[in-house]
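Inverse folding, one chain.
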């Protein structure tokens, strides 16, 4: 989890920074990550790991919101689409995190249920696997959107430049599609 959020956190923290600041922030984040991983591996302590992850996600979320508001035009189609992708990414990422927590808390119970129901139904109860899928999709969307926001001014056709499910999210209920009909 921390190996996913740390590079994204670095990207949002250094979006307009000089090469020197980018290097220093990278070294600080890398050192912090290394210390957290060593501590977690040696102690098998989960609270600091989870709090660090949550703090990274919150910092990434706040920074992403600021970037969207400063780098896109208010009311533009691009802003609406980007917000749709970011909302979907946040929802799917957090769903993955909650599936992981349930898996940690109920591992032995879920294992016995999987053994009782057998394949193919047991596949749906592999919450640790779903955690990887959901957080991977959410992380991809955030990485791709942030990369797009910091690397260029033209936000036209952003959904088409990204892989699924980002284009779908840009046109879905997450972007406010469908709510326009109710307002008309």
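Residues assigned per position:
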């Amino acid at each position: 989890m921390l190996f996913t959020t740390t590079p994204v956190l670095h990207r949002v923290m250094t979006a307009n920074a000089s090469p020197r600041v980018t290097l220093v922030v990278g070294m600080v984040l890398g050192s912090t990550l290394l210390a957290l991983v060593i501590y977690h591996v040696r102690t098998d302590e989960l609270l600091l790991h989870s709090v660090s992850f949550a703090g990274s996600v919150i910092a990434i979320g706040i920074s992403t919101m600021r970037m969207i508001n400063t780098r896109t035009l208010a009311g533009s189609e691009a802003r609406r689409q980007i917000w749709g992708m970011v909302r979907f990414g946040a929802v799917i990422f957090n769903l993955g995190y909650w599936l992981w927590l349930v898996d940690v808390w109920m591992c032995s119970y879920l294992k016995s249920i999987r053994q009782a129901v057998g394949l193919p139904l047991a596949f749906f109860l592999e919450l640790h696997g779903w955690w990887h899928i959901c957080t991977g999709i959410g992380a991809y969307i955030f990485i791709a959107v942030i990369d797009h926001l910091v690397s260029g001014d033209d936000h036209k056709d952003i959904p088409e430049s990204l892989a699924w499910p980002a284009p779908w999210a840009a046109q879905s209920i997450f972007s406010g599609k469908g709510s326009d009909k109710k307002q008309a």
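Residues 1-71 form one domain. Residues 76 and 155 are 10 Å apart (CA to CA).
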